[in-house]
Amino acid sequence: MYVLALTLVVTAADPSPIEPRPAMAVYQSFRDELIHVEPGEGPYPVRFTLGRNADEPTERPLQQAHIARDFYISRYEVTQELWETVTGKNPSRWKGLHNAVDSVSYNDCLEFCHRLTLALQEVDLISDTQIVRLPSETEWEYCARAGTISLYSFGDDPSELNDYAWYNGNAAGNDPAVGEKKPNAWGLYDMHGYMWEWCADRWHDTLRDNPADGSVWSVRGDPKKRTLRGGSWKDSAKRVLSTTRRGAYTTTRDDALGLRCVVSDVLSEPGAVARSSAEK
Protein backbone atom coordinates (compact mmCIF):
# COMPACT_ATOMS: atom_id res chain seq x y z
CA MET A 1 0.00 0.00 0.00
CA TYR A 2 1.37 3.31 -0.99
CA VAL A 3 0.70 6.55 0.84
CA LEU A 4 0.85 9.61 -1.31
CA ALA A 5 1.91 12.61 0.69
CA LEU A 6 0.96 15.95 -0.76
CA THR A 7 2.47 19.19 0.42
CA LEU A 8 0.19 22.13 0.00
CA VAL A 9 2.05 25.39 -0.35
CA VAL A 10 -0.06 28.43 0.34
CA THR A 11 1.31 31.76 -0.69
CA ALA A 12 -0.29 34.61 1.20
CA ALA A 13 -1.43 37.42 -1.01
CA ASP A 14 0.11 40.79 -0.37
CA PRO A 15 -2.18 42.79 1.89
CA SER A 16 -4.20 45.31 -0.03
CA PRO A 17 -3.41 48.92 0.74
CA ILE A 18 -5.89 50.72 2.92
CA GLU A 19 -8.28 52.52 0.63
CA PRO A 20 -9.03 56.16 1.46
CA ARG A 21 -12.57 56.66 2.77
CA PRO A 22 -15.02 59.22 1.40
CA ALA A 23 -14.56 62.67 2.90
CA MET A 24 -17.92 62.54 4.69
CA ALA A 25 -16.95 59.33 6.48
CA VAL A 26 -13.67 60.87 7.62
CA TYR A 27 -15.40 64.01 8.88
CA GLN A 28 -18.06 61.95 10.67
CA SER A 29 -15.37 59.91 12.44
CA PHE A 30 -13.67 63.09 13.61
CA ARG A 31 -16.96 64.40 15.00
CA ASP A 32 -17.86 61.10 16.64
CA GLU A 33 -14.47 60.88 18.34
CA LEU A 34 -14.70 64.25 20.06
CA ILE A 35 -14.95 64.16 23.85
CA HIS A 36 -17.17 66.78 25.47
CA VAL A 37 -15.29 68.33 28.38
CA GLU A 38 -17.72 70.04 30.78
CA PRO A 39 -15.93 71.65 33.74
CA GLY A 40 -17.90 71.13 36.93
CA GLU A 41 -19.71 68.07 35.55
CA GLY A 42 -18.80 64.42 36.12
CA PRO A 43 -15.03 63.82 36.19
CA TYR A 44 -14.15 67.31 34.98
CA PRO A 45 -13.02 69.69 37.75
CA VAL A 46 -13.45 73.43 37.43
CA ARG A 47 -10.02 74.12 38.90
CA PHE A 48 -6.66 72.43 38.67
CA THR A 49 -2.98 73.20 39.27
CA LEU A 50 -0.91 73.94 36.17
CA GLY A 51 2.81 73.05 36.15
CA ARG A 52 4.92 71.42 38.84
CA ASN A 53 7.63 72.19 41.35
CA ALA A 54 10.66 70.89 39.50
CA ASP A 55 14.22 71.66 38.47
CA GLU A 56 12.88 72.39 34.98
CA PRO A 57 12.20 76.17 35.01
CA THR A 58 9.77 76.04 32.05
CA GLU A 59 7.30 74.09 34.22
CA ARG A 60 7.32 76.59 37.10
CA PRO A 61 5.82 78.26 39.04
CA LEU A 62 2.63 76.42 39.94
CA GLN A 63 -0.45 78.25 38.66
CA GLN A 64 -4.06 77.82 39.75
CA ALA A 65 -6.27 77.58 36.67
CA HIS A 66 -10.03 77.88 36.37
CA ILE A 67 -11.64 76.23 33.34
CA ALA A 68 -14.99 77.96 33.02
CA ARG A 69 -16.15 77.00 29.52
CA ASP A 70 -16.95 73.64 28.02
CA PHE A 71 -15.25 72.45 24.84
CA TYR A 72 -14.73 69.31 22.78
CA ILE A 73 -11.31 67.74 22.34
CA SER A 74 -10.29 65.06 19.88
CA ARG A 75 -9.77 61.60 21.30
CA TYR A 76 -6.78 61.16 18.95
CA GLU A 77 -4.07 63.25 17.38
CA VAL A 78 -4.94 64.34 13.83
CA THR A 79 -4.36 61.44 11.48
CA GLN A 80 -2.81 61.56 8.04
CA GLU A 81 -6.17 60.47 6.63
CA LEU A 82 -7.92 63.50 8.09
CA TRP A 83 -5.12 65.90 7.14
CA GLU A 84 -5.05 64.68 3.55
CA THR A 85 -8.85 64.78 3.26
CA VAL A 86 -8.84 68.42 4.34
CA THR A 87 -5.75 69.70 2.53
CA GLY A 88 -5.21 67.27 -0.35
CA LYS A 89 -1.63 66.74 0.82
CA ASN A 90 0.28 64.51 3.22
CA PRO A 91 3.54 66.07 4.46
CA SER A 92 4.37 63.20 6.82
CA ARG A 93 7.67 61.37 6.81
CA TRP A 94 6.16 58.27 8.41
CA LYS A 95 3.34 57.37 6.03
CA GLY A 96 0.15 55.62 7.15
CA LEU A 97 -3.47 56.77 6.90
CA HIS A 98 -4.12 56.06 10.56
CA ASN A 99 -0.79 57.34 11.81
CA ALA A 100 -0.60 60.79 13.34
CA VAL A 101 0.27 63.43 10.78
CA ASP A 102 3.79 64.75 11.26
CA SER A 103 6.06 67.44 9.83
CA VAL A 104 3.45 70.18 10.21
CA SER A 105 4.21 73.71 11.38
CA TYR A 106 2.04 75.87 13.62
CA ASN A 107 1.09 77.94 10.58
CA ASP A 108 0.12 74.76 8.71
CA CYS A 109 -2.07 73.76 11.65
CA LEU A 110 -3.90 77.09 11.69
CA GLU A 111 -4.76 76.74 8.03
CA PHE A 112 -5.85 73.13 8.56
CA CYS A 113 -8.15 74.11 11.44
CA HIS A 114 -9.72 76.85 9.35
CA ARG A 115 -10.37 74.52 6.42
CA LEU A 116 -11.74 71.77 8.66
CA THR A 117 -14.06 74.29 10.32
CA LEU A 118 -15.54 75.25 6.96
CA ALA A 119 -15.82 71.61 5.85
CA LEU A 120 -17.64 70.52 9.02
CA GLN A 121 -19.96 73.51 8.97
CA GLU A 122 -20.86 72.80 5.34
CA VAL A 123 -22.07 69.28 6.18
CA ASP A 124 -23.72 70.34 9.47
CA LEU A 125 -21.37 68.39 11.73
CA ILE A 126 -20.68 71.55 13.73
CA SER A 127 -22.77 74.69 13.99
CA ASP A 128 -22.03 78.03 12.37
CA THR A 129 -20.95 79.36 15.78
CA GLN A 130 -18.37 76.63 16.37
CA ILE A 131 -14.79 76.40 15.18
CA VAL A 132 -12.01 73.85 15.07
CA ARG A 133 -8.88 75.21 16.71
CA LEU A 134 -5.73 74.36 18.61
CA PRO A 135 -6.08 74.09 22.39
CA SER A 136 -4.63 76.60 24.78
CA GLU A 137 -1.79 75.05 26.72
CA THR A 138 -3.88 75.28 29.91
CA GLU A 139 -6.66 73.30 28.23
CA TRP A 140 -4.06 70.85 26.97
CA GLU A 141 -2.55 70.16 30.41
CA TYR A 142 -6.00 70.03 32.00
CA CYS A 143 -6.93 67.25 29.57
CA ALA A 144 -3.57 65.49 29.81
CA ARG A 145 -3.82 65.30 33.59
CA ALA A 146 -7.44 64.08 33.46
CA GLY A 147 -7.99 65.02 37.09
CA THR A 148 -4.63 63.76 38.38
CA ILE A 149 -1.76 65.56 40.14
CA SER A 150 0.91 62.98 39.27
CA LEU A 151 3.78 63.16 36.78
CA TYR A 152 1.79 61.14 34.27
CA SER A 153 -1.95 60.71 33.92
CA PHE A 154 -1.58 57.14 35.23
CA GLY A 155 0.71 57.91 38.20
CA ASP A 156 4.38 58.57 38.91
CA ASP A 157 5.97 55.26 37.90
CA PRO A 158 7.79 55.48 34.53
CA SER A 159 7.91 51.66 34.36
CA GLU A 160 4.25 51.80 33.33
CA LEU A 161 4.90 54.24 30.50
CA ASN A 162 5.14 51.52 27.83
CA ASP A 163 1.42 50.90 28.26
CA TYR A 164 0.49 54.53 27.59
CA ALA A 165 3.08 56.20 25.38
CA TRP A 166 5.42 56.01 22.41
CA TYR A 167 8.75 57.48 23.50
CA ASN A 168 12.43 56.77 22.88
CA GLY A 169 12.27 53.70 25.11
CA ASN A 170 9.94 51.81 22.75
CA ALA A 171 9.72 53.66 19.43
CA ALA A 172 12.09 53.90 16.49
CA GLY A 173 9.89 56.20 14.43
CA ASN A 174 6.44 57.69 14.16
CA ASP A 175 4.95 54.66 12.45
CA PRO A 176 2.19 53.23 14.69
CA ALA A 177 -1.47 54.06 14.29
CA VAL A 178 -3.02 56.49 16.75
CA GLY A 179 -4.73 54.97 19.77
CA GLU A 180 -2.64 51.80 20.06
CA LYS A 181 -1.64 52.57 23.65
CA LYS A 182 -3.93 52.93 26.67
CA PRO A 183 -5.89 56.19 27.02
CA ASN A 184 -5.99 58.39 30.10
CA ALA A 185 -8.98 58.44 32.44
CA TRP A 186 -10.92 60.77 30.10
CA GLY A 187 -10.44 58.53 27.08
CA LEU A 188 -7.69 60.59 25.40
CA TYR A 189 -4.93 58.69 23.62
CA ASP A 190 -1.25 59.57 23.11
CA MET A 191 -1.21 62.58 25.41
CA HIS A 192 2.21 61.37 26.56
CA GLY A 193 4.76 61.05 23.78
CA TYR A 194 4.12 60.01 20.17
CA MET A 195 3.90 63.57 18.80
CA TRP A 196 4.62 66.97 20.26
CA GLU A 197 1.29 68.78 19.96
CA TRP A 198 1.01 72.42 18.94
CA CYS A 199 -0.92 74.75 21.23
CA ALA A 200 -2.21 78.22 20.40
CA ASP A 201 -0.18 80.09 23.05
CA ARG A 202 2.86 82.22 22.47
CA TRP A 203 5.95 80.64 23.96
CA HIS A 204 6.90 81.85 27.46
CA ASP A 205 10.00 80.60 29.27
CA THR A 206 8.05 80.04 32.49
CA LEU A 207 4.41 79.72 33.55
CA ARG A 208 4.41 82.95 35.53
CA ASP A 209 1.33 85.08 34.72
CA ASN A 210 -0.26 82.36 32.59
CA PRO A 211 -3.98 83.26 32.14
CA ALA A 212 -5.94 81.80 35.04
CA ASP A 213 -9.12 81.26 32.99
CA GLY A 214 -7.72 78.71 30.54
CA SER A 215 -7.62 81.11 27.61
CA VAL A 216 -4.80 81.43 25.10
CA TRP A 217 -1.69 83.20 26.39
CA SER A 218 -1.37 85.76 23.61
CA VAL A 219 0.44 88.64 25.35
CA ARG A 220 4.15 89.13 25.92
CA GLY A 221 6.24 86.02 25.31
CA ASP A 222 7.91 85.36 21.95
CA PRO A 223 5.58 86.33 19.07
CA LYS A 224 7.60 84.19 16.64
CA LYS A 225 7.18 81.00 18.68
CA ARG A 226 4.29 78.86 19.92
CA THR A 227 4.07 76.26 22.65
CA LEU A 228 4.38 72.51 22.17
CA ARG A 229 3.17 69.98 24.71
CA GLY A 230 3.49 66.31 25.60
CA GLY A 231 6.85 65.19 24.24
CA SER A 232 7.30 62.73 21.38
CA TRP A 233 8.64 59.37 20.25
CA LYS A 234 12.09 60.98 20.21
CA ASP A 235 12.01 61.95 23.90
CA SER A 236 12.89 60.21 27.14
CA ALA A 237 10.44 59.19 29.86
CA LYS A 238 11.35 62.39 31.74
CA ARG A 239 10.25 64.50 28.77
CA VAL A 240 6.76 63.12 28.17
CA LEU A 241 5.12 64.27 31.42
CA SER A 242 1.74 65.95 31.76
CA THR A 243 3.69 69.18 32.38
CA THR A 244 6.34 68.86 29.64
CA ARG A 245 6.50 71.94 27.41
CA ARG A 246 8.80 73.61 24.89
CA GLY A 247 8.67 76.37 22.32
CA ALA A 248 9.24 76.31 18.56
CA TYR A 249 9.08 78.82 15.72
CA THR A 250 5.71 78.95 13.96
CA THR A 251 7.37 77.78 10.74
CA THR A 252 9.12 74.76 12.30
CA ARG A 253 8.40 71.36 10.75
CA ASP A 254 9.71 68.10 12.17
CA ASP A 255 8.71 64.44 12.05
CA ALA A 256 7.86 64.61 15.76
CA LEU A 257 5.46 67.58 15.49
CA GLY A 258 1.71 67.09 15.15
CA LEU A 259 -1.55 68.38 16.60
CA ARG A 260 -4.79 67.58 18.38
CA CYS A 261 -7.91 69.64 17.70
CA VAL A 262 -10.47 71.30 19.92
CA VAL A 263 -13.98 72.34 18.89
CA SER A 264 -15.66 75.19 20.74
CA ASP A 265 -18.04 78.08 20.36
CA VAL A 266 -16.17 80.90 18.67
CA LEU A 267 -17.85 83.50 20.87
CA SER A 268 -16.64 81.87 24.08
CA GLU A 269 -12.97 81.62 23.16
CA PRO A 270 -11.48 85.07 22.47
CA GLY A 271 -7.96 84.87 21.18
CA ALA A 272 -8.26 81.23 20.13
CA VAL A 273 -10.01 81.60 16.78
CA ALA A 274 -8.55 79.60 13.91
CA ARG A 275 -7.41 81.98 11.21
CA SER A 276 -7.63 81.58 7.50
CA SER A 277 -4.13 82.97 7.06
CA ALA A 278 -1.09 81.98 9.09
CA GLU A 279 0.15 84.22 11.87
CA LYS A 280 3.55 85.69 11.34
Explain this structure to me?
The chain has one domain (23-268): paralog of FGE (formylglycine-generating enzyme) (Alpha-Beta Complex). The model is unreliable at 1-16 and 270-280 (pLDDT under 50). It is globular, with a radius of gyration of 20 Å. The chain has 280 residues and is an alpha+beta fold. The protein has helices at residues 23-32, 80-87, 106-122, 137-145; strands spanning 34-37, 47-50, 63-66, 71-74, 130-133, 196-203, 222-229, 245-249, 257-258, 262-265. The protein contains 4 helices and 10 strands. It is 16% helix and 17% strand. Helix 1 (23-32) packs across helix 2 (80-87). The strands form 3 sheets. The chain has a 4-stranded antiparallel β-sheet with strand order 1-4-10-5. A 4-stranded mixed β-sheet has the order 8-7-6-9. Strands 2-3 form a two-stranded antiparallel ribbon. The longest helix is centred in the middle third of the chain and has 17 residues, at 106-122.
In short:
The chain has helices spanning 23-32, 80-87, 106-122, 137-145; strands spanning 34-37, 47-50, 63-66, 71-74, 130-133, 196-203, 222-229, 245-249, 257-258, 262-265.
Task: Give the tags.
280 residues, 4-stranded mixed sheet, disordered N terminus, alpha+beta, globular, paralog of FGE (formylglycine-generating enzyme)
Mean pLDDT: 90
Rg calculated over all Cα atoms: 20 Å
Order of helices and strands: HEEEEHHEHEEEEE
Instruction: List unreliable stretches of 5+ residues.
Output: 1-16, 270-280
Assign the structural class, choosing from mainly alpha, mainly beta, alpha/beta, alpha+beta, or little secondary structure. Answer: alpha+beta
**What is the second-level CATH architecture?**
Alpha-Beta Complex
The largest sheet has its strands arranged as 1-4-10-5
Coarse morphology: globular
Q: Count the strands? A: 10
Q: Could you say how many structural domains there are in total?
A: 1
Q: In angstroms, what separates the terminal alpha carbons?
A: 87 Å
Give the full name of the CATH homologous superfamily: paralog of FGE (formylglycine-generating enzyme)
CATH names the topology as paralog of FGE (formylglycine-generating enzyme)
What does the main sheet amount to?
4 strands, antiparallel
